[in-house]
Amino acid sequence: MRKKIVRAAASLMLSALILMTSACAAATHADTSQAPEQPQDEVVFSQGMVYIPDRSVYFADVNTGYDWAFHEIDYLANTGVVSGTGHLVYSPAKSLSRADFVLMLYRAYDMQKYAEGENFVDVRDSAYYAEAVRAARAIGIATGDSKNRFRPNDTLTRQDAMVLLKRTLDRTGLTFEPGDLSAFSDGNKVASYASEAVAALAKAGVINGSKGKLNPTAPVTRAEMAVMLYRALHLQTIGDIAVYLSQPAIRLVCVGSTIFADVRIENYEKDTDYAGLYAMERMTKGEKGYSVTLGQAQPIDDTIIWDGSRLSVNGEIVPVAEDCEAIAVDMYSKRKAGLCSTGDEYSAGAVSIVDGAVKTVYYKQ
């Protein structure tokens, strides 16, 4: 599985990098006569089909009822920031512990090098989150109480999640515009220690609230946290201020069993519901990541039969690539390489043909 790790402000050394970049830019500003040629994007695919899911491709329980969060959850799964609570299970409605969120931050912002020094007295060295909490403590993201306890297994509240996230973002060198909580009907219920962080993240668009409320003391769910963290990782700077801008042309797409996170649809049309199977004109990879140009939407309604040596599509025998695979699009997380056993019939399917041979069979179970 190919992982595309694109993390805005992903390194805690970003402040130093910004200073170095600024210095280099100042030193070279005077000579603009020889502008370097822009590198050409690499063509990754130029034939076949691409599948755009309408639910998670990693977790069976992140279904169409989570249309507001499945893209963010899958992005974090694709980049190794989150994992499930069981086989194909993410538990999106489950509340998150303080330790588990720190572990997400640790992975997302590459904190491994900071895992030094003492830990909190209630964090065992053998705990799966011990190094993550140690690193967060070392750089001031995680703080304990007067008895040096972190309470790792306590349920994380929404306001405490925002405090931990804001401290992390502050250490990347990003600058936030101060906000206020007057737009939220329960803004006055935010604890004083959390008000600055919550207001700043609301102003930046990292959090939006629900029905005009912040619900600051409610437990944060695993789905809610994925959305917050995804937006934090995709912050942009406009006039030196960090903001999150929604990019509807950015999607998670699948080419066979390979999953690509954050792919830009080059020929994106506003208000179009992109979901399902599409012909692919090309996919490219450049400095800004992957982009795809889509062809027509493709129905998944062909009758496809594999007898162990020959593949027929609507009664016509077609060549098969040696690495041909079959993908069940209605349960993508059960994908597996190779065609199924002799005699299996894909009664509702479609084939992706590359270089004259079937590369992928997409089918509905």
Question: How do the helices and strands follow one another from N- to C-terminus?
Answer: HEEHHHHHHEEEEEEEEEEEE
Termini separation = 23 Å
Seen as an oligomer or otherwise, the chain set is single chain
Count of individual helical segments: 7
Q: Which segments are poorly predicted (pLDDT under 50) over 5 or more consecutive residues?
A: 1-9, 12-32
Please describe the biggest sheet, giving its number of strands, its sense, and whether it closes into a barrel.
Answer: 6 strands, mixed
Strands, total number: 14
Written account of the structure:
This protein is an alpha+beta fold. The chain contains seven helices and 14 strands. It has helices spanning 14-28, 70-78, 98-108, 130-138, 158-170, 192-204, 222-233; strands at 42-45, 49-52, 236-238, 241-243, 250-255, 258-265, 276-286, 289-298, 302-306, 311-313, 316-318, 320-328, 345-354, 357-363. The strands form three sheets. Strands 1, 2, 5, 6, 7 and 8 form a six-stranded mixed beta sheet that branches. Strands 11-10-9-13-14-12 form a six-stranded mixed beta sheet, with no helix packed on it. Strands 3-4 form a two-stranded antiparallel sheet. Mean pLDDT is 87; it is low at 1-9 and 12-32.
